[in-house]
Amino acid sequence: MDVGLVKKVRLGLEKKRMMKTSIDYFPMLASEKVDKRKILKEYNKSMMSKDHDMILPRFFILSLMGKIGNYPERDRLFRRLNELSDREIVFSINDYCFNHYSICTMVRSSLFNNILNDVQSNWFSEKISQSIWALENPFSVKYFVLEDESFDKKFLIKLFNTYKLLLPTEIETISIFNLKREFFRLKLKSPYKSILDIAYLFKLGDKSPTYFHEL
């Protein structure tokens, strides 16, 4: 593979990881005093972000609700998160944190004080924090890519919906292999594109160098 292209992609990833995200306020949330204007600003910023349906922004939004004492809305949002499977959670976290590794390393040690109840705090520790701690090497995709057996048709359909991608018309008959390849090819052309999409495609044997030009 072209050495210059590899260098360009790596530099692009490093630059992306230095950019601000919609959850930059997350690590400071518990320590700062309640400022409803600030909370509203952070809420609007997160809701306007293309990533607002991902696990970390969703948990950030429910934490904002807890910060201002809107516990019914916090609990409603948490119930929806708690319905997700472990695979959905890990995939979303890995995908988000590969592109935003720095903020994820700060989020994983966040304290919530009275923002969350005990169940929500434990859920964060077990589902989010532990998943981020497992991402030991920020530039090694093996820590971020799920094993092949993690993907079945039901899981892939959920991913299509999460990332707002159109399902293939032959969804009833398409193989898991082709459905998985179609998902990552479409995701790579979407606003959610990531080097991880190329890593998954390469694992499937689809090793077109042109994929790097999509980044």
Distance between the first and last residues' Cα:
16 Å
| Alpha-carbon Rg, integer | 18 Å
* Overall pLDDT confidence: 90
The overall strand count is 0
Quick recap of the structure?
The chain has 215 residues and is mostly helical. The protein has helices spanning 3-18, 36-48, 55-67, 71-82, 86-99, 101-107, 118-133, 153-162, 176-188, 195-203. It is built from 10 helices and no strands.
Descriptive overview:
The chain is mostly helical. The chain folds into 2 domains: 19-133; 145-214, no CATH class. The chain is built from 10 helices and no strands. The longest helix has 16 residues, at 3-18. The protein starts with a helix and ends in a 12-residue tail after the last helix. The model has no long low-confidence stretch (mean pLDDT 90).
Features:
215 residues; mainly alpha; 10 helices; 0% strand; globular
Helix/strand layout:
Elements: H1 3-18, H2 36-48, H3 55-67, H4 71-82, H5 86-99, H6 101-107, H7 118-133, H8 153-162, H9 176-188, H10 195-203
Helix pairs in contact: 2-3, 3-4, 5-6, 5-7, 8-9, 9-10
